[in-house]
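Quarterly update from the structural biology core.
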Amino acid sequence: AKLMGYDLKNRKQAEKMRKEAQPMYLLAFIAAILTALVMSVFLDWMGMRSSPLAGASVGMLAWLGFVATTQFTQAIFARKPMSLFMIDSGYYLAALATMGIILGWTG
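Predicted structure, tokenized:
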């Protein structure tokens, strides 16, 4: 936290961080729901709601085609370390594959 300019021992600053984070978590949750809804539409269009493996495959392909490519472009132009790119995009790979598994499982 110190590297980000916050001192967690400072109660005022920690409380401010908590208050600022609440709307961000809500918006992130809404974005995740929207992503799952769009993935559901993709699975329906492709006729791939047959199994968790099919759902995971669609999730991984969506990650490769849409997320990894755009985040990679951002990373190289922002001169971010590739390790940061791997962490950031790896999160989305796991999220999209998991969404695909759940959607494929629920058929």
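Residues 11-46 form the longest helix (36 residues).
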